[in-house]
Design goal:
Blueprint lengths: L1 H36 L36 E7 L5 E6 L5 E6 L2 E7 L5 E5 L7 E10 L6 E2 L3 E6 L9 E5 L10 E4 L12 E7 L5 E6 L5 E6 L2 E7 L5 E4 L8 E10 L5 E11 L11 E3 L6 H9 L5 H7 L15 E3 L7 H5 L2
Antiparallel strand pairs: 1-2, 2-5, 3-4, 3-6, 6-7, 6-8, 8-9, 9-10, 11-12, 12-15, 13-14, 13-16, 16-17, 18-19
Helix pairs in contact: 2-3
Length: 349
C-alpha cells in the first residue's frame, strides 16, 4: 500500500517536471525566434570627409618701434643782466648733463630735470663784446650731443646795459629757419612791432632770402623791382621771411615790402636797394665780400671762417673804411683774409 502511494507521488512529480521543462523549452524557442526576427540596426551614417583646411600662416611678429631720435640740447631763454651776468635756460634729454661753451671754453654746466629742463646762471659777468655760445649734453654712459643752434650775444659796456642783445642763430645748413631774438636791445624793442627788413641773405644753394620784422599776424607782399616776389605772414614773435621762387637776376635791384591791411590796401611800405651777386664759395669772390643789407662782420666771419668771433680779422683788414665794427653798410667792399687765425682773432675769444 505504501509502495503504491510512493509510486503515485513519484509519477506526479515527474509529470510536473515534464510540464515545467516544456514551458521552459517554449520560452527559449520564443526568445530565440524573437532575436532572429529583430530588424537589423541601421549602420551609422558615413561621416563626411573633412575638407582640408587652408594652412594657417603665423602672423609676422610686430616690428620693433624705431629708436627715439636723440634729444639735442637747445636754448629757450637767454638774458644778460645789468652787470653782464648771463642767465640761460632750455631743454635736453631728462637727466642729461648740459655744458655751456664759449668756443672751446666751458662757462657753466647744469643737469636737466625730469622734464628735460635746465638753467645755467653764470657766476661771473661776461666781458663786453660779441660772442657765440653753444651747448653740449650727455647722458650717463652715452656720447655727448652738440646743439644745432647757437646763441649770439652782444654784451654791452657797463655804462650801456640797455644795449644787451641775445639772438638764437639756426644751424648754417638749415635754410628754412631764421634767427630768433631772445633779448632785444632796449632802444630797439619798440621797433619790433614796426615793418622792417633785417636780412638779405644767401642760403646754402646760393638763393636769396629776405627776412625782417612786422606786427604779428600781418600779411606782407614783396616785390623785386616791379615783379611780385611772394607773400609772407609775420609770426607771433613779429618775424617774417621769404625765399622767392623766382630768384632775382644778377645785378642791382630795388626791394619793396608792403604791409597789407585787412581790406588789402597798403598800410606801410619800405623800399631798399640791394645788389645780387654771383658769389662762389659762399659769399666770397676773389677774397672780397660785398656787404648786403642785414650783414654784420660777425655774420660774415661765421660763414667764412666758421666762427663769429673772428670778425676782428676782417675788421683789422678794412680799418680804413670801418669806423665802428658794429656798423657796416650795404655796398661796402671788404677784403677777407684767407685765414681767420691771427692775433686779432685770438684777442676776441
Amino acid at each position: 500500500m505504501v509502495a503504491s502511494e510512493d509510486r503515485v507521488l513519484t509519477d506526479a512529480i515527474m509529470a510536473q517536471g515534464m510540464k515545467w521543462l516544456s514551458l521552459i523549452g517554449l520560452a527559449l524557442a520564443a526568445l530565440v525566434g524573437g532575436i532572429l526576427l529583430l530588424p537589423e540596426a541601421p549602420l551609422p551614417a558615413a561621416r563626411p570627409v573633412a575638407q582640408a583646411l587652408p594652412a594657417v600662416v603665423a602672423p609676422a611678429p610686430p616690428a620693433l618701434p624705431a629708436a627715439p631720435a636723440p634729444i639735442r640740447p637747445s636754448f629757450d631763454v637767454a638774458r644778460i643782466g645789468a652787470r653782464g651776468i648771463l642767465v640761460s635756460a632750455g631743454r635736453a634729454a631728462a637727466g642729461a648733463e648740459v655744458v655751456l661753451f664759449d668756443g672751446g671754453r666751458e662757462l657753466g654746466r647744469a643737469r636737466a630735470d625730469g622734464r628735460g629742463e635746465w638753467v645755467i646762471v653764470l657766476a661771473e659777468p661776461l666781458p663786453p663784446g660779441m660772442r657765440e655760445l653753444s651747448l653740449s649734453a650727455r647722458l650717463a654712459g652715452g656720447e655727448p650731443l652738440s646743439s644745432e643752434d647757437s646763441l649770439l650775444l652782444l654784451v654791452p659796456e657797463p655804462a650801456q646795459p640797455q644795449a644787451a642783445m641775445a639772438m638764437l642763430l639756426p644751424a648754417p645748413g638749415n635754410a628754412a629757419a631764421q634767427p630768433r631774438m631772445l633779448q632785444a636791445p632796449a632802444e630797439a624793442a619798440p621797433e619790433r612791432q614796426r615793418l622792417g627788413l633785417d636780412v638779405v641773405d644767401y642760403d646754402e644753394q646760393g638763393g636769396m632770402r629776405f627776412a625782417g620784422s612786422a606786427p604779428p599776424g600781418v600779411k606782407l607782399r614783396l616785390y623785386v623791382g616791379r615783379d611780385h616776389a611772394g607773400d609772407a605772414v609775420a609770426d607771433g614773435a613779429g618775424r617774417w621771411s621769404l625765399t622767392p621762387e623766382q630768384q632775382p637776376a644778377i645785378g642791382r635791384h630795388m626791394l619793396r615790402v608792403d604791409q597789407l591791411a585787412a581790406a588789402g590796401s597798403v598800410a606801410a611800405r619800405i623800399e631798399l636797394p640791394f645788389q645780387r651777386e654771383a658769389i662762389p664759395d659762399d659769399m666770397l669772390r676773389e677774397g672780397r665780400v660785398i656787404v648786403q643789407p642785414g650783414y654784420s662782420l660777425w655774420r660774415i666771419a661765421r660763414r667764412v671762417y666758421g666762427r663769429g668771433p673772428r670778425y676782428t680779422v676782417i675788421y683789422a683788414a678794412n680799418r680804413e673804411q670801418i669806423r665802428d665794427p658794429h656798423r657796416i653798410y650795404p655796398g661796402q667792399l671788404f677784403a677777407v683774409p684767407e685765414s681767420g687765425t691771427s692775433a686779432e682773432s685770438s684777442r676776441s675769444r
